Amino acid sequence: MPKRAPQKAPTGERTGKRPNTPRAGKTQPDKPRPDRPPTDRPPTGKPRPDATRPAKARGGSGAGKAARDAQAPARPASGRKGAGGRRPSPDHGGVQGQAGAKTRGRVNGPETPAFLPMSRAEMDALGWAELDVLLVTGDAYVDHPSFGVPLLGRLLASRGHRVGICAQPRWDVVDDVAAMGRPRLFAGAAAGALDSLLAHYTAFRKKRHDDAYTPGGRAGKRPNRAVTVYANLLRRAFPGLPVVVGGIEASLRRVSHYDFWTDALRRSVLLDAKADLLVYGMGERALLETARRLAEAADEPGPRPPELLAGILGTAVALAPERAQELAFELSGATPESAAPTAEVDSGDDAAPNAASPNAATPDAAGPDTARADAGPLFLPSHEEILADPRKLLTATLALERQVHQGARWAVQEAGGRAVLVAPPAPPLSTGELDALYDLPFTRLPHPAYAEPIPAWGMIKGSITSHRGCAGGCSFCALALHQGRRIRSRSRASILREAERLATLPWFDGSISDVGGPSGNMWNARCAADPAACRRASCLTPRPCRHFLADQRAGVELLRAVRALPGVRHLRLASGMRLDLALTDEQALRDYVAEFTGGQLKVAPEHFSDKVLRLMRKPSFAHFERLCTLFDAASRRAGKEQYIVPYLMSAFPGCTDADMRDLGDWLARRGWRPRQVQCFIPLPGTVAAALFFAGCDEGGAPIPVARTDAERLRQHAVLAPEIGARGRRTGGPKADGRPGPRAPRPAPKGAARNGRGRAK
Which segment of 82-96, 444-458, 543-557, 730-744 scores lowest on mean pLDDT? Predict the structure, then answer.
């Protein structure tokens, strides 16, 4: 048997450790606290004295000093004019394009700034009198392609737009977001790389005391529901300016969703933020099209058309219900007579081939599909209908999931007299477009304004993204909803170019920590069928689809080529691998284990019970046992002492105490004491969150759900006794006198609860 992993485990949400329990003490009411239970309103009170402001770069050490030593901001040629008059929009021919595109009045110049400006002083140094686009983010600014807002900022800058970044502004005053002046086109807001509530709270609603995306790792630099708070700040600072929201937090909340942190059903974040546009998924195409339309409108006399931003793929807009329906039919090219009536056709067996229902459709079924992309608009159950019947959240979630995968239907959902029109997802970037995007001149460093290290940068600075998307479609995971199930890969040449550049950087120590994506072994995988006709919820479960093609040996050869580059001494596959896909090519698996594991291989079996695994859309536990056998043999053959690091989950919908004990018994028989144990968190927008809320599987059959903290702690204690042994009573004291897990606070205004005491 493979050895279990060493006891020390990295901190994070999946670890069984308890790093984030707050100590007892009184809360100061006059200071804004992101750790307060979520509300719709931004905290008020005195500004934080240590708030990160967009300010002039200052002295420091560490990563900031390295950034300044590596590259100084490029100054423009003298004699440039200020920002007078209007300018035509820069070139937007696809995602590929020329940096330094010409614009009326000024030219961006042949050189791009080393860092996008974060202060007025940096704008002055560049000769910029105004910005075209301001991007607000809940993360610190790290100029690395793994950070979404800097990547989008670089893309916009490559088209001639003057882009500024406001990172982690104070949220009780507008001073920080207004510091660089009113942008000419629009302002964008994102919570950052993580959902802000997930960044603030553990699975038991305990406050986290660190934030890897903040200088010094300090918590408290972003508010709860950051997208809504930042959008409100921008509207106050710049009345009448278009506000665009996006990122993972906005993507997962684009329609009605269950909110675990308040135990309530919430409507679309677009309605709460009152933004002009919501960009979901990977936002390159949508953001470029938004900038193009607004630039053209800025050059035209008269007011901006009210529906200027409607109809952009990969976005959602809020409209009057009648207009949303009219526009949905108009944009889809269908008529009310020919269209499928509601999203109800997406529920049931055809929509859930991987459900636990015994009547589920066969995995590769290709018969008539009433939910095909050409069936007209998709009318989701309204917010009020879901409040009345929680099972309709599952109907809406499955329908929206299929819309993302099939990629062609328009969707409409009504809520409180308004309607959200959700466009089909933007087409994924081609290999050439991805190559051009990752060839942009990223410094790969934190902005020089920071004097303290940023933990997330330390984790990803030596990594390379090889592909996007995940074919797994796990019901609890947001990746397939955000990046899509269709894999899009960079070319081998592009990845090698990035590795060569990385090897020349002064701080590079010879080790590349990862070349991968959501899963390490899906590079260059593709679907040979038509996604618009696909009814599968996953390309891999209950067994790999015959149309899903993945040459894993080509992935091994890519890693060998990267490792052979001058200056590269070590290369690890830190992304982990999808275990059922790995078992389809045992030779490639042996090569991964022998050459690129680096001592520990991350694999996510998640559970022991096949009943629970079906609800998760994960392969049978027998697959994990087979992989353990192959891993152990390959490690011995290579003469290496290596470990399996299994990711496991407790309290998933459908899981009982007996199921957890079965998993615990299997681990005990082998002497394993895993540390990567996650108690299930219902992430907004995911199928698993809908299972939790509705209390039934995808086929409509009732399932047991551990809802209370006491039930969840009891299940978690089977694998993580150091957590479950304390705080057994919800809200009760622990043995050490510290407060126990807090029960959900009353739902905020606009949310609703039912008579059983939980959200409807």
Answer: 730-744
Q: What is the Cβ-side half-sphere exposure of residue 175, based on CA atoms within 13 angstroms? A: 9
Which residue has tokens 């934030």? 211
Burial zone of 493 (CB within 10 Å; 0-12 exposed, 13-18 middle, 19+ buried): exposed
Q: What amino acid is encoded at 707 in this protein?
A: R
Q: CB–CB of 57/449 below 8 Å?
A: yes
Cα 279 versus chain centre, distance: 13
Residue type, 633: A
Nearest to 162 by CA among 183, 136, 188: 183
Closest by CA to 516, choosing from 464, 568, 551, 438, is 464
How far is residue 144's CA from residue 443's CA, in Å, rounded to a whole number?
A: 7
Instruction: Give yes or no for a contact between 249 and 240, defined as CB atoms under 8 angstroms apart.
Output: no
Neighbours of 732 (CB within 10 A): 12
**pLDDT of amino acid 376:** 87
| pLDDT tens by residue, 159-170 | 999 999 999 999
The closest of 245, 406, 394, 243 to 702, measured between CA atoms, is: 394
Is 641 exposed, middle or buried, given 0-12, 13-18 or 19+ CB atoms closer than 10 A?
Answer: exposed
Among 717, 715, 723, 729, CA closest to 655? 715
Tokens of 159: 């088209």
Q: Residue 534 class from Cβ within 10 Å (0-12 exposed, 13-18 middle, 19+ buried)?
A: buried
| Parallel, antiparallel or unpaired: strands 511-512 and 570-571 | parallel
What separation in angstroms does the CA of 89 have from each of 185, 245, 278? 10, 21, 21
Identify any residues that bridge with 672 across adjacent strands, giving them in sequence order: none
pTM of the predicted model, to two decimals? 0.81
Residue 221 — pLDDT band, cuts 50, 70, 90?
very high
